[in-house]
Structure formats: C-alpha cells, structure tokens
Design brief:
The structure holds two protein chains of two kinds.
Chain A: E1 4-6, H1 10-34, H2 44-72, H3 74-79, H4 87-107, H5 123-147, H6 153-159, H7 162-186, H8 195-203, E2 205-207
Antiparallel strand pairs in A: 1-2
Helix pairs in contact in A: 1-2, 2-5, 5-7
Chain B: H1 2-20, H2 29-35, H3 41-46, H4 54-57, H5 63-68, H6 74-88, H7 91-96, H8 98-101, H9 109-112, H10 121-127, H11 130-138, E1 144-146, E2 152-154, H12 159-164, H13 172-175, H14 192-199, H15 209-217, H16 219-225, H17 233-236, H18 249-257, H19 261-267, H20 271-277, H21 286-289, H22 306-309, H23 315-320, H24 331-338, H25 343-347, E3 353-361, E4 366-367, H26 370-377, H27 384-388, E5 395-396, H28 398-410, E6 415-423, E7 456-461, E8 467-472, H29 498-524, H30 526-536
Parallel strand pairs in B: 3-7, 5-8
Antiparallel strand pairs in B: 1-2, 3-4, 3-6, 7-8
Classes of the chains: A mainly alpha, B alpha/beta.
Amino acid sequence: MKDKVYLHPLPVRIWHWVNAICFFFLLLTGLQMRYGDVVTIIPFRTAVTIHNIFGFLLAANFLLWAIYYHVTGKVFSLYIPAKPGQIGIFLKSLIRQSIYYGYGLLIGERNPHEPKPENKFNPLQKISYHFVMLFMPIQILTGFMLWNPSYFSRWIDLLGGILTVDTIHVFLTIFYLAFIVVHLYFATLGPTFFSHIKAMFITGYEEEH
Amino acid sequence: MLVKKRICLLLLIFAIFGFSSECLSKEEKKTCFQCHTAFSQADYNSSVHGQFTCTVCHKGLKLEEHIKERRPKKDEWRKTLNGECLVCHDLKILSEKPNHRSVLNQLLCSECHDPHLSKPLRTVRKSIEERDYCLKCHGKKGLKMRFKNGELISLYVDEKEFLKSAHGKKPCTFCHEEFSKGRHPRKLYESKRDFVKELSPKACARCHADECRRYERCVHGASVKKKGIAPLCSDCHRPHYVRIEKHDMELHLLKCVECHKDVYDAYKESVHFKAFERGNKNAPLCTGCHKPHDVLITSFNLKNNEVCFECHKKVEKAHVKWFYNPPFRSSSFVKFHLESITCNVCHGTEKKGAVYLHPYDKRTRTPITLEKIEETLGVKRENIGIYLDADRDGYLSANETWRLFGSLIDRKITLTLLGWMDVRDPVLSHLTEPKEKALRNCEVCHRADSPFFKDAFVVIRDNYGWPMVFRAHKDLLSTKSALSPLSEFYVFGSTRLKIVDLLLVIAIIGAILVPSSHILLRIVTRKWRREGARHER
C-alpha cells in the first residue's frame, strides 16, 4: 500500500468547496447577466440576486482564508512561490514541473514534486494559486463597486471610472474561468481519475506518488 | 402787418357775434341754464369755452321751437355736434398730434374732453394725476391702434382692474417712459410684435431684473434673440392686469398651450393634471416644472430629475422598497439610477429611452462647451459639426470621439462622456402615468439588445445651454476606443466592450484546448507508459 499524507485538513476542504460553489454560481450568473441577449436560462433579476449572494459569501470566505493563512503564516510557505533570493531555483522547478506535465507524465515518469503539509503545492500550483488568491481581493472589491456604484463612487473614480472597474472585473473573470477549467482537468491527473477529488472532498489524504 | 392782424381779429369777433345774433344772444345764456342744470353757469364760464355763447356750438336753436322740438337721440346728437369742434380745432392740426391722430376716427371729441367744463390744457396737466390724464383717453374702450400690417389692438386700460394689479401703484410713464403729460410721440410699428418688443423685456427689467436676466438665457429669450416666435414678457403677463397667483390656470397652463398644444394633449392625460383637476394645489401645471423664467431644454439635460425631486422628496425611500441590488437594500443604489435616468423613462407613457452623452472635462468636472471647442481647437462654430463628424456619415463614431479625445488631451483637457438615459419623445414624456404602470423590468436596460440603447446622441451645449446634438454610432458604446472617453459611462450588460467578449471566447477555447490536447496526448502515449511500467517491474 502506498503512503498517504494528510494534506487537506477539514477546514481547508470546507473552505475549498465553499469557494468552488461560489465560483460556479458566480461564473454562471455573471455570464447570464452579461450575455442575456445571447441566451436566457434564468431571469436577469434572479441571476443578479444569486450573483450577489454568492459574491458576499465568496468575500466572507476569502476573509476567513486571509485571516487563517496570515495568522498561521502559512500564506508565505504555501502561496508565495519563492523568496527574493530563490527565484532562480523556483523558475527551474517550475520548468521541471511543466516538463513533467508536458512530457514526463506521458511516458510514465514520477512527479518531481513530493507533497508535504508544509509544501503541498507543486511549483505550477504555487504560481497559479498565488495569482488566484492575489487577484481575489481585486475581484471582490471591483464586485462591490459594481454592486453599488454610488456608494463606492470614490473608489471607482480612483480606478478611472465605472467602465474600467467593469473591465477589470471581467478580465479577472476570464482568468478565473480559464483557471477553473485547467484546475478541474489537473484534479483528474492523480494516481486515479478520482483520487485528488476524493482527497479534497472526503479524506484529506493524498497518496504519495 | 400788425394792423392787418388786428383787422382780422375784429372780423373774427364780428363774425362770431354776428352769427349768433339770429339765435339766442349772449344775455340769453342764462335762459339755457334755467333748464340745463347739469353744471353751473359759473363752471361753464371758467371753462376753456366759457367765453362762447351756447349757440356758437349748438347752432340754429330758437327758444320757442327748441322747447317744442323732438329731442334727437343722444349718440346722434353728439356725433352731429362733434363737427362743431372741428370748426375751430382744425382737423389738419389735430392730425399732426399723435395722441389725437390715432383716435380721430375712433372717438368723439366729447368722449375725452368735456365740452362745457374743459379746462385749459396747462391747467389740466397740472391739476390731475398722470394716470388720470392718460386714462382720459386710454380709459375709453374704443381706443385702438392699427399697425402697418393691419393688426389692430385695443389701447384701453380698465382702470379698476389696473389698480388691483401688481403694477397698480406705478405711474404709466414708469414703463411708457417716452410718454408724459406733456409728451406723446407719434409711434408707428410694423406689427404688434414690434410694438411689444420695444417695451418687453426692457421696461420690465427695471424692476424684474433677475427674472429678465434668466429669461434671456432660457429657451424663450434665446429664441427671441434669434428672431423666433417665443413669447415676450407681456405675451404671458398682461402688464396692466398682472397678478401674482400661483394656481392661475390661465397664466401657468393655458398661456403655454397657445404654442405647445401637442404637449398639452399629452399632459392633460397625466397624473399631474388629473391631480390638479381633483383640486390638488401641489400638482404641477406647466410652470411647476418648467420654471417660468428659466425654461430650459429639458431633454439632453443631466439634471432633469431635480425638478421632480422638488415635490417627490422621499423618492429614494419609495423606490428602495423594491428597487435594490440584493441582498441589501441601499438608497445609494436607487440614487445611482436616479442620477442617470430621467424619471419619465420609466414613469412616462412612452417607456422608451435613448442614451445622451455629455462631454465633460474629467479633471475640472466642467462641461466642454461649444465655446471651449472653438477656443481650444480653433474651430469655428459652424464647422464644429464637420470637424467632429470627419467622415460626414451623420454619426459620431468611436474613432471620431477618440480623435477628439486625443486633440483635447493635447490641450490638457481630459474628455469624458457622462451618460444620461432620457426619453425619446419629449412631447409624450409629459404624460406621466400612475406608479402602478411604471417600468420595473431591469432587463429593459441591462441587455445588449436593449431598445433603449438603440439610439445614442452626443450633446454639446453652448454657454447658454443651447445644444448641438450629434447622433452617436452604436460602436461608440462598445469598442475599446470608448475605454477612455466613456470610462464613466457604463450600463451593465448593455455597453460591454467587444474586445473583452473576444478575449472571453479565446480564453474558453484555450482552456478547453489545453486539457483536451493533453488528454489526446495521454491516449497516444498510453503504450509508452505501459512499457515504462513493465520495465520498472
């Protein structure tokens, strides 16, 4: 039997799936609100209501994450790709990890990254999650501004106008949409199709490669 | 020469006395006053005609016959006698005096001058008030003036009504300053309009300077300057009978209807007029919304709703009951909409809107006026249209706006187009419907295919507020060129940038291609992995 490592504690798993549900509904309702002329699955007002509720939930969830990871200091070990002096090393490992997914995985090589609780993300995960979480406050704040432009008018002016705010929000949506599609695919690249999903959803234990 | 004059005078005296010798003699004047007691002989004697015997004017009277003869009707009698005045008062000389010329064919002498009690002019002028002096003629209903174009107006002033009016305490010459008790210049006008224009608003401005200054800047005043047919002061306010009555339907509604009949037809069906008919004194008539001396072009105006809020003070609270962005109710969300949509886009009968874009300087938050464009870009007013619509297709496109943005930024002006959703038909917008019929459907605006975004206009005003309106190409609202000039105008779902849509499509395709090509590679390389695993074993 292969060794298992406890990578995903229950609070992290709950946080992850709340985040996932929020993103799912936010993306769907966001696209519905924006492209109501192309396709109408749910009425505009319902889409707005769902979008806003999940938007606030996402914001609260992000706040929890931010507090937890900053208080524990894990944000630096897990989400900051490299310390200033180690960027070269990180880049090398990033290339190695990319080569693994592009070639090594295809010929059956071992994953160069050994996940441990204090270093559970591989370099590709690290860089992508880094930006996912870095952009999150921007996405949430621009969401707030679009939710009530009059109330946040000063912030909107600082950013150069409501159209700019919306453009930022939509650019980041495109980023998250692309990320989620790739993320979902990578989630299936474990030892078995469901092993990563199972670990994240039920057990918290990842099999070592 | 002197001898000749004396002979003439003697002949005249002889003629007068000789003429009357056949009739009643001077001594017999007393006889007349025995019956004609309406005024005393002493009063008559002190009048301007007191030196003459009765028969100088009342010719051919013989005492015996006069008692027996049938009395003629009063009017006929006066008309007959009017000719006697002209025996002495030469018609030609009278015609040269403007105050007489205009009335010679309309009034009898005795209607203004009492033949028996008239005092010498100098005495009269001194003894009576100016108004009474003017009203001696202008208090007669028949007094009229005809203009060169044939128009006829009454010069009659009802003294009682005048005294009750707001101007009742002013002397006539306060407004009619060219006239006085001793001066009545002869004035000839082409038309009634020319006559009115001479006094209004010049004379009115002496007291109502503020109103006149505002009037000159409003649509009516500006139209008058351009020789339009807009009303002058006295077209709305009857200067001799002006009253201050807030709910005067004649002044606050019917005067406007004389020109704006189509607006009235819409307005009379509105909730406002129906409320007025029910007796609600707060319901606005025309002037309730269009401030009487500040009548501005309400369309294309960024501050359209302010006039509604003067009465509808709790409008935010009323809307927030249903109009909010979930999950929280926020009046600022309502405010945001009220600051960008004319009330009657939703509350009017038309239920249609159009986008009006107003150029502003983003740094100073001041409007970019036609004068400013003239000054900064050196383009003459008449060429501004051609300058902005360079391809002359009748539309202001995104590229043309971008070019303007570029030209202005070189001169340290940051163009931003502030958007406003306004009604399309300004006439129908007066038919405000009950709130139950108001538009409550968000999708009407928040969709790319919204009919409200079908028409867009760019409105540039001059310093007086007069607009130059350009049709805007629809691409102005949705291309990347709009990102800077239109950074402050955005309607969710309706004005999305095409380039962002394109990026979304590319991202989705890319996101699907990456895993699917990887899956394909994994399928192709399955054999290699199996062989590798076998080797490991």
